[in-house]
Amino acid sequence: MNYRDLLNSGANVSVTLKLEDLREIFREMAGSLKSVPKDPPSEEFLSRKEVLSILKIDSSTLWSWEKTGYIKSFPFGGRKRYKSVDVEAIRTGRKGVCHGK
């Protein structure tokens, strides 16, 4: 009886294995595993003060950008937070110059 048959039988037994047999079982199991996709990186958010500092803008500019949809804010505990990727896109010029979207 091989180990698969033993596992499928549901028997309550003690088993003694040689180290090489155990290695073979692990190799076989590793070969049959599906790769699990990694978790996407968690989003990082910045405070209003951090955004103003990074972009070197006035708070009225940030307010205007929010109202026109140029940058989106997210409420966290009664305070606004901004996605760091959005801020970086504006800082590096990858975000369009059109403030209407």
Instruction: Compute the number of helices.
Output: 5
Parts with pLDDT < 50 across at least 5 consecutive residues: none
Estimated share of beta-strand residues: 5-15%
Strand order of the largest sheet: 1-3-2
**Biggest sheet features:** 3 strands, antiparallel
- The helix/strand class is alpha+beta
Layout of helices and strands:
Blueprint: H1 3-9, H2 19-32, E1 45-47, H3 48-55, H4 59-68, E2 73-76, E3 79-83, H5 84-92
Antiparallel strand pairs: 1-3, 2-3
Describe the structure.
The structure is a single chain. This protein has 101 residues and is α+β, with helices and mostly antiparallel strands. It has two domains: 3-32; 45-92. The protein is built from five helices and three strands; from the N terminus they run ααβααββα. A three-stranded antiparallel beta sheet has the order 1-3-2. β2 (73-76) and β3 form a beta hairpin. The longest helix has 14 residues, at 19-32. The model has no long low-confidence stretch (mean pLDDT 85).
Provide keyphrases for this structure:
12% strand; 2 domains; alpha+beta; three-stranded antiparallel beta sheet; 5 helices
What would you say about this model in short?
This protein has 101 residues and is of the alpha+beta class.
